[in-house]
Amino acid sequence: MNGTRVGASARERLYVSTTDTYDADNDLDYIAIEYALNGERVKLTQAEKIHTARLLDERGCGIKTIAARVGADSSTVTGWRANGWKAGPRLKSPTRGPRELKPCGTRAAYLRHRAKGENCPECRAANAAADRRYRGTGTTKATQ
Ligand SMILES: [Zn+2]
User: Fold this and answer.
1) CA-CA distance, 123 to 64, in Å (whole number)?
2) What is the pLDDT of residues 104-134, one digit of tens each?
């Protein structure tokens, strides 16, 4: 027995800098970054997270690994990379355009007319029908 487990070769330790431990201009603590690079739990500032992510990316790590090491979402890391490793504007989820208004002859249009103080017989009839349905079935939605 030599105490060496199969597949347990020593993992290469990654280093950031051999001379500096702190970059005051960019608010980077290289010791913290080195911990993060090597998968050790450490609290990082956003600048450190981005720096770490860039270093891991340069070393060929996948986005998911990078995200896990820096404690960020993989979409966030993707955003940093797309932005040249800078904190960019948050990627917004696609926003929907203005809602399409229901046409006349629907309960929704009746409610819209009523809010504007308008009188539309077609919509009033639709609302009355919806009301009847509601009393009978418990829903204003027409059944197919
Ligand atoms: Zn109408």
Assistant:
1) 53
2) 999 999 999 999 999 999 999 999 999 999 9
Compute, in angstroms, the gap from residue 124 CA to the centroid of ligand 1: 8
Cβ < 5 A residues, ion ligand 1: 104, 109, 120, 123
Query: What number of other Cβ atoms are within 10 A of residue 55's Cβ?
Result: 20
Give domain limits for the chain: 22-82, 107-137
Distance 133 CA to ligand 1 centre (A): 19
Q: What is the pTM of this model?
A: 0.53
Q: How far is the CA of 144 from the centre of ligand 1 (A)?
A: 22
State in Å: Cα 140 to ligand 1 middle: 17
Of 136, 97, 104, nearest in space to 122 by CA: 104
Domain 22-82 in CATH 1.10.10? The answer is yes
pLDDT per residue as tens digits for the range 34-91:
988 888 888 998 899 999 999 999 999 899 999 999 999 899 999 999 989 988 766 6
